[in-house]
User: Fold this.
Amino acid sequence: MIDTIVPTPLDVAETVDTSTPRDPKMTARDVHVFYGEKEAIKGVDITIYDDKVTAFIGPSGCGKSTFLRCLNRMNDTIPSARVTGEIELDGENINSPKMDVVQLRARVGMVFQKPNPFPKSIYENVAYGPRIHGLAQGKTELDAIVEKSLLRAGLWDEVKDRLADNGTALSGGQQQRLCIARAIAVDPEVILMDEPCSALDPIATAKIEELIHALRGRYAIAIVTHNMQQAARVSQRTAFFHLGEIVEYGKTSEIFTNPREQRTQDYITGRYG
Amino acid sequence: MSNRPLTRWTDGSMDRLVTRRNAAERRFRALGFLAVALSLAFLAFLLFTMAAKGIGGFTSTEAKLTIDFPRSDLMLDPGALRGPDARQNAAGAALDGVIEQAAMARFGAGGGDLFGGASVRELGDQLVGDPDLLGKKVDVWLPLSAKADLAAKHGGDPAYDKLLAKADTRTRFNLTFLTASDATDASAAGVWGALKGSFLTILVTMLLAFPIGVMSALYLEEFAPRNRWTDLIEVSINNLAAVPSIIFGLLGLAVFLNFMNMPRSAPLVGGLTLALMTMPVIVIAGRNAITSVPPSIRDAALGVGASKLQVVFHHVLPLALPGILTGTIIGMARALGETAPLLMIGMRAFIASPPAGITDPATVLPVQIFLWSDEVDRAFVEKTSAAIIVLLVFMLLMNGLAIYLRNRFERRW
Assistant:
């Protein structure tokens, strides 16, 4: 099975990163997360860049999703969770009392593991975010935002004639792209994706991956994935999480071809995980 | 392990096992079918006896009577029957004497027993409608007294049978039953007062219990921290839902009447008392409905930057509403049929006029049924069954409306 996990040279070549990163978009310093007594994240430092896709890989239960949820403070909704350390968005501490968590979540959008469209029309799904944030003046502007977001999510052609249909009536892959359209409709700066393809078939997965390519540069993207080929295909940076720590973080090409750590090597060659 | 022989799936012993298993399934299915059939039979029996007994309450027998007003002893000026006091003047006139006189003239001695309170009312209404009748000799159809009505419907009373044989009779829909309030004379008694009282009481209950119950459920489920206090509140609410209703009646008596000095027998107090009783049911049903909204919907809304309040009111509440409405239907149906707590706060009084507002003395349908079922007069038996039918129809209409609303809001995900 090793050959399915180690990316082919061609895959890596596509994502070889020659440019120096522009600006650090989000920076985490010494982040710990506790669920009650249990320490799920044990001191993570990482920087996510504006124009890059950053992949978080690692075995189940290693804390990569937990860390991702720190970046837009979704862990606030879990009563037993406690986060310490510093996370900055454009140099601003997101855990400080001055930061409005609702606005933070609009700036740092999220796509979840299971497609979760609202049980409303396709139009309403996309229009909801802009509407509550007052991003559109009037119906025409809102229509334009909905169309633009669906276009960017690559869903427009498939749904333009049935915007009034229920979002939950779409196929799994379409639902996930609808969720991406919903996330980008509020013009976020960062998009977090928590295993966005784990519930999808290979064709739908390929579409989402293309979409991630297309969105790179416009948004900083952080993606959690179990699929190492996917990490190699879509990301320029990869962080390998293990037991609540980042074992190794660097350019995707280097992580997959020339890892510094033995544990990374073992994981990407399928020896454990 | 290795010594164990291979399982023989096609063995005779296996066949026996399969037969036994299939028999058990068939038995269970038959028992379930029997249970449903039995409950349907009980329901059919109940409805049938109710309809058979009560249907007579909706009809009344009328007899033709010739009244010669100019030659009667009636001292009534046609002018008094015009203007705002017409109805009062008609009621004040000795119309019962006129009827008795005419009846005796027509049917002989005892003829006066044929007509009761309802006929006086009816004649008064006819005179107000056309005061010129006072100057003529006219034929009018008047409802029979309760006893005569019973005899006309079922027979068995020789005295009345003889009188009725001489009379011209017809059967009419008994509008009096639906438009009049309680009366001592069964032929003049109706359910309108109780129906209106029930409506007002339920309205007060609904306006209080629904919003407060739903808000409590939302707060407890979505906003309140989980700690010892909220656990305590949850246990209390669950216990409150199981408290016998008469105790809520005593509470209403002590708090609303004795302490707050609210008017006795009023729909306001009845509604408040029933709201106390219904609220826990709505809170429990509401919390269940709210928990069953998938968390992924909350995540989705939070993920696009909706505030807690927006998540709750744009997504959670609309999705939970069908479930909340189901709980509310159950609670309201229980409140509508409740008798015991209302007896405690004085809604069992004899009230002969419908309540004009929520602070007027009133009674409610179940209490009216209870009161009539206690009457000695045999004519009230029919009225009792008819009132039960009215209560059931009212309840069905209310539930139908709630189910319609629930289906309209129903969403699937």
Q: What stands out?
A: The longest strand of chain B covers residues 59-68. Chain B touches chain A at residues 225-226, 294, 296-307, 310, 314-315, 319, 411-413 (CB under 8 Å). The longest helix of chain B spans residues 12-54.
